[in-house]
Amino acid sequence: SDRTRLANRIVDLRTNTSQSIFRVQSGISSFFREYLRGQGFMEIHTPKLQGGATESGASVFKVDYFGRPAFLAQSPQLAKQMCISADFGRVFEIGAVFRAENSNTHRHMTEYTGLDLEMAIDEHYHEVLRVLDGLFKFMFKKVYENYRHEIDTLKQHFPHEDLVWLDKTPIIPFAEGIRLLNESGWRDENGKPLPEDEDLGTRDEIQLGKVIKQVYGTDYYVLDKFPAGARPFYAMPDPNNPKITNSFDIFLRGQEILSGGQRIHDEKMLTKQMERLKMDPNTLDEYMQGFAWGAPPHGGGGIGLERMLMLLLSLGDIRHATLFPRDPKSLPAKPVVKQLRHPEASTLHPPWEGQDRHAAGMELPSVEMLIANYGDASNTSWLEPRTEIWRDDATGAAVGFVPHQGYAITVGDPLCHKSQYARTIAGYLHYIKKERGIKPLWLLCGGDTEEVLSSHRFDWRTFSVAAEQRLDPGNNPAVHDHDIQRKIRHASKEGVKVHDYPLGTPVPAEIKKKIDGRIQDWLANRKGKQVHLTDIHPWQDEAHRQYHYTTDKDGKIVGFVIMAQLSPDHGWQVKFSLDFPGAPSGAIEMLVMHALSQVAAGGATSVTFGGGASSKLTPGHNLKGTRIKVLSKAYHAIATELKLTAKSEFREKLGAQDDPIYVCYPPHGLGPGGVKAILTFFEDTEDPNS
C-alpha cells in the first residue's frame, strides 16, 4: 500500500518504479536550467529565512532567530523581484519552498521544490508567457526523448497515456473558461453557476480540464486574466479593467502547475494596493525600497517540481514524486502525558483502591465522567435510552451494549485505561454469554480494541467499513479556503450572528425551547431512509457539552452545533451540526468554523466529526479470502443502496483525516441474522411522521 511504501521509504526507493520517478525528476530540473540559460537567464539563490510577513497571505513557519521572530520563506517571489529591481534582467532559481498549511491532500506538501523565474518586460506581459510556454514544451519534449524507458517502466505501476500538447497552446481568458464550465452543465456545490469573479476550486479545475480536453484536444493549456480577488497584492491590474489582472495559470491534466503574471513595479501603486488589503508596507521595507529606487516592468511564475512530475506521470499522489515527503503529519511529536478530566473516575486508581467499595459506601463513577476520561465519539451513544451498561466492579470500567434481535450490539471502546482492555473485554463477554445468553457483536471500535479482540485469546474476525473523521482545529486549512471563506462572508452580509454557551454555562430554558422547535423543523424536512447511531437529544450530559447557534437578521435560529467533550486523547466531537430549513447560504460553515476555533482556543488539538462510512471494506484480522469477498460484495450493495459513502467536501477542506474503526465478531458469529441485526440497529428510530 502507499502507506507501507512511504513508511519504509529507503526500501521503496530501491525499486525500479521509484528510481524511474526520480530520474525523470532530475531530468526536469536539468532541462529547466538548460532552456533558461539558453534564453539569457541567470541562476540565483535566495534566502529562506525572512523577517517580514508572507507576500501572498499563505501561512508561514515561524522560527526563533536568536530570540527574534523570523519565518521560512513561502516562495522566492520578493527576492526575485528585488533582483529585477537591481537590473539582473532575467533570473531563475531551483530551491526549497515552505507552506505552513494543514492541507492533507494528494497534491500539497509543506515543503517542496520550486522552479521559479522572473524577467523584465519590454512591451507586454505575454512575453513572460511565451518564455514559459517554450520552457514547458522544451521540458515535455526532452523528458519523452530521454526517459522513454523510465516512463514505460512507470506505466506498469501507474498506467496512463502520454501527455498531449498542441503546437499552439490555447490561451483562454478566465471568464471564458468559467463560461465553458457553466455551459457544460457544471455547477458549484449549491447547484449554482460559477461566478466569473471568483477563483476556481480544485474540483472545478479538474472538471475544466476535462471540458478543455474535449474542446481543444490537449492536456496542457493556459487560463489568462484572473480576477483581482484571486491574486496576491503585487499582481498588476489590467489597464482597461481593474477587476482583472495581467496574470495567468498554466494547467496540466486539469490541474494548475504554475501561477504567474506581471507584477506591480510602481512604488505608489504597490503601496496603495497593500493599504487597500490592510497590509503594512513597513513589514516589507527591503522589498519596497527596491521599487522606491525604480524598477522595470517585470513578471514571472513558479512551478512546483513535485506537482508537475505527479501530473506528467499520473502518479496520483504528490508523495510519490517527493523524495522524503513532508506533509502536516510528518515529524510526529512524542506523545504528551495527559491528565484525566476527572481523576476521581480513574479506572487505574479508583477511589476505593485497596478497600472494599461496597463496605466503604462508594458509588461507581458515572458513565458521563468515564466518557470525559476515556471516551471517543462512539461512546457518546451510550447515553441513549436503549443502551445498557455493564460495569467492572473492581475497576469501575464500563462497556455499553444494546440487546437487539438476540445480539448484544456493542459500540465503541471500553471506558477504561487501554492497559485494562483485555481484562475488561473478557469480563464483559463472560457476562453477555453466561448471564444474558445473547451473542456479542462489536461495532465502531478503535484499533486498540480491535487488536485485543483479534488476538489469540479471543480470535475474533475483524474488518473496517468506517472511520472517525479527525482534524486539528488549531491547524485548519479551511481558514485559507476561498470557497468556504466566500460563503462565510455571504452569511455575515446576510446578518447571521453566532451565539455561544461555553462549557459550564447553562443554556436558558427559553433558548432550549426555541432550539427544540427548530430541531423538529429539521426532522420534518429530512427525506429518504435515515441511518445513524444516535437520535438527537441535545440536552444530555450538559456538563461536558458546549453549545453554539446562529440567528439570521430577524433573530430566528438557523443553525445549531453541539461540541461534546471526549477524553484528553480524543479532544472533542462535533456531536451535531444542524443547518435548519431556511438558513442563509454559508451559515452552517460560519457556525462550524466558529465552534472549531472556540475549542482550539481552549487548547484542543483533536476534533472528530464521528464515524463516517468508508468507500470499501478493508480486512482486519483472521478473515479468509472467500469470506472477504462475500462481505465486500454485501457491503458494496448496502453502501450503494443507502448512499453511505457520499463524502463531505466541507470536512475534507477542514483537513479531516480518516482514522479506521472496526467491526469485530467471534468465529461463526456473523451469519445472516447478525448482518440483519446490525442493519436494523442503525435504522431511524425517531420518525417525525410516525
Automatic annotation (TrEMBL):
Catalytic activity: tRNA(Asp) + L-aspartate + ATP = L-aspartyl-tRNA(Asp) + AMP + diphosphate
Domain of life: Eukaryota
Aminoacyl-transfer RNA synthetases class-II family profile domain boundaries: 22-325
Principal place of residence: cytoplasm
SUPFAM superfamilies assigned to the protein according to its UniProt record, in alphabetical order: Class II aaRS and biotin synthetases
Keywords: Aminoacyl-tRNA synthetase, ATP-binding, Cytoplasm, Ligase, Nucleotide-binding, Protein biosynthesis
Enzyme Commission numbers on file: 6.1.1.12
Catalytic EC class: ligase
Gene Ontology biological process terms in this record: aspartyl-tRNA aminoacylation
GO terms under cellular component: aminoacyl-tRNA synthetase multienzyme complex; cytosol
Molecular function GO terms recorded: aspartate-tRNA ligase activity; ATP binding; RNA binding
Subcellular locations according to the entry: Cytoplasm
Family: Belongs to the class-II aminoacyl-tRNA synthetase family. Type 2 subfamily.
PANTHER family for the chain: ASPARTATE--TRNA LIGASE, ASPARTYL-TRNA SYNTHETASE
Protein name in the entry: aspartate--tRNA ligase
